[in-house]
Design a protein that fits this description.
about 230 residues, alpha/beta, Rossmann fold, 7-stranded mixed sheet
Length: about 230
Amino acid sequence: MKDIYGNALLDYQGGIYSEDIATFSSLDEEDTIPLPYLFRNFDAMPPIEQKALELCKGSILDIGCGAGSHSLYLQKKGLEVTALDRSKGAIETCRLRGVENGVLTDILDFKERKFDTLLMLMNGIGIVGNLENLSGFLKHLKTLLKPGGQILLDSSDIIYMFDEDDDGGRWVPNSGSYYGEVAFTIQYKGVKSEPFIWLYLDYQTLKSAALTNELDCEIISKGDHYDYLARLW
């Protein structure tokens, strides 16, 4: 598969920065992922991410680590962190930046050890794709937790992107699928990915799936725009 994301990270790490990653979604929005933002330090992170990093404890698995900004911060605090990503370029970028422990794999294929904290930031739960995969995904994460361990993740309820009706509700098209399943393609330097589904998850749906898998779930904090940080244990 094309490692578009990883190639972009490696370019930026190598001092070759000429454009950002372009994104195209089923919500009819064209946007970009600014590469410098993926290399930000703690002070440049939003409060929800900062709070999540402060709550990390023990051994930590940074799932979907990207450029490794969260892993680097935790590592510098003296915590034991493993950065995991299925992008070869992302894991190589982490190594070049000084992340000591990196694993190149899909999280669903990872079974080697257990952790005190599983970390999924920047809407990391999006890798679930279709909502029907969520329960099985959480079941797998449970197998990676030590006794007393926790999952920290953030997401957004994108209901705000749909038209509001006269009584304050939202009009969501009846497409037969969950409104938080968004089809994306990304493009970098003329190379475009195949379409993929990225999941944006409202809190009540997350909590319901957590309870189904015998996990407690709570909101730790909320952002300014329908985003939240949740802890599952």
